[in-house]
What we know:
Blueprint: H1 2-28, E1 33-44, H2 48-59, E2 62-67, E3 70-81, E4 86-95, E5 98-105, E6 111-129, E7 140-159, E8 162-184, E9 189-198, E10 209-219
Antiparallel strand pairs: 1-3, 1-10, 2-5, 3-4, 4-6, 5-6, 6-7, 7-8, 8-9, 9-10
Amino acid sequence: MKKYVASFTAALALGFLATSTLAQQNLTAEPKFYAGAEIGSYSSKDYTKELASTLVSQVGGTATASQDSTISNSRIFGGINVNENIGLELGYNQTSSYGFRFSGVSRTAVAYSGTASAKFGGLDYSVLFRPNVSTGLNGLFFRLGGHSLDQKTDVRLTAGNVTVSNNDNHSGTGALYGFGYDLKLSNTWGMRISYTSLYNVAGISGNDGYFVNIGVLAKF
């Protein structure tokens, strides 16, 4: 009888030990879902030569142009860590306006000048690839995905005593890739720094640029 009691007691103790271990693992396990916000800058391709060439081809004469090379950007995002190596993420981007300035003299000796401003916003979606936790570099990620963005452009032109303006909207999709690092502050909070290249913004061929962002994220 004592033998059976001892065996039962040992099995019960092992059961409590296993339950305690599982509970501890659940308390310390990394949360799968996360959400966060980033701010940073967006750098666009230089279009000044292209803009000046277009003006000359349209009205002749000479033309010069300049543009803002960097603008501010904000992004909110959420995602799920499918496992320690793969995550899925969805974000929403919005930029401030960035400007173009141009001036010239037409082939008929009419002087003109003008400004243009553009901004875009919309969704991005990507798969994140991370090294194994055992490497100590699981905070590092590489991003591959796409975007669906809307770009709004406002143009104003003055030639002599005449001023005209035009508004234009473009929507479309393109590809993106990037990389970044999530710095773990606690089991539920972290910081992120990231770089993302965008191709064909708003579906416009050659309309490329990149984000450099820093932000915070919460895990749950």
